[in-house]
Amino acid sequence: MIECKNLTKIYRNGDVETAALKDVSFEIKKGEFVSIIGPSGSGKSTLMHILGALDTPTGGSYVFDGKDVARFSDDELSDFRREKIGFVFQSFNLLPRATVLRNVMLPLLYSGKSKEEREEKAHECLRYAGMEENKFHNLSNQLSGGQMQRVAIARALINNPSIILADEPTGNLDTKTSRVVMEAFRELNSKGHTIILITHEKEIAAFAKRIISVRDGLIESDKTY
Prior knowledge:
The protein has seven helices and ten strands. The protein is an alpha/beta fold. The protein has a domain at 2-93 and 160-224: Rossmann fold, CATH 3.40.50.300. α4 packs across α5 (145-157) and α5 runs parallel beside α6 (175-190). The longest helix is centred in the C-terminal third of the chain and has 16 residues, at 175-190.
């Protein structure tokens, strides 16, 4: 599904160059649950931005389902992010004064589906993510952190993405809630979803079946468990 070859990313600030990624190569197959782990400044966030088509590499190639993402037009990149990638962020990125249901429905706003179809799909995704039905009409700012992350997961699933890309999804959660959310990701993976998790926590990375460790812009290790 994903093939990265010799990825390099250099940031320039005047005459100063900083190499965030240095000749990074790996593949991710459909159905895998992969953690990318590393300390602050290791290059893992840069790698996440490239995989999510939020940034472009300075060198090397990122091939998704046989297509070189670097060759995509702006419109194709937008379609790629909307249709192929389901993003889950540390800060949830929910609209605080919108209901749970509306937050999940939002990515379908310009899909051409009727309101009834969008609601039905949102209900399906919320149940799939383990959200309690009696919370569907609550405002998102009335939820606990764990509940908000389940809503974010449901929203990520709404367009049937090829990959769920989770960036530090437990960063704002306590230990108990973090485990609950990670079990939800593990359950999604058992149902066939491809998940790429970005984290700096070993305990969270251990929920995945494969751990890619990044340090100083290089892959330090790549182990399957």
